[in-house]
Amino acid sequence: MFECLMIWIEARFILNYLFAAIQKRYRINQYIRSSPVRVVDEDGSNLGVMETSEALRIAQERGLHLIEIAPTANPPVCKIMDFGKFKYDREKGEREHGKKQKEVEVKGIRIGFTTGKHDLQMRAEQIKKFIEGGDKVRIQMKLTGREKAHGPLAFQKFKEFLDMIPIDINVEMPPKRFPQGFIAVVGKK
After folding, report:
1. How far apart, in Å, do the first and last CA atoms of the chain sit?
2. Are strands 65-70 and 136-142 parallel, antiparallel or unpaired?
3. 7 in any annotated domain
4. What stretches in the chain show pLDDT beneath 50?
5. Is the entire prediction scored with pTM above 0.90?
6. Does 112 share its domain with 94?
7. Could you give the number of structural domains in the chain?
């Protein structure tokens, strides 16, 4: 029982250490080690360069915290504001930034050397839908057996298929030969 408790405590310690390394820590109030610092007021006005003790005294008089914003600047930049509000604003900004990013998905289409013309037209229409949806498309021509011996003919058929796509495309990765056939990546122009 005692051994299980020790293992659990050790695991918690390791997890806390790892998460602390991932999270960005800000130095506040008496934990700011550098002096002098450039101080910015809560409304964004510059108070100038002063000793850390003086900036801390001003922050305490106003009932706020002194937060080190840019520790690598010369001199380091500190801001006088409420730390809870500061953390909330940072997290809100990160959430908004995450919402604005659109994940571009790479869809895949596979065709064969002997695929019929109508089937190729259907695949071209599928590619059109994917590209209009904002995704990239990886087109792969799979060659099997004796088809591998007819590389130039297969490459010509692959190029013809790319020309079949009914919208303007940007070929991000030009058709490239690999042991099982050809591959290309296309996207929106």
Report:
1. 64
2. unpaired
3. no
4. 18-23
5. no
6. no
7. 2
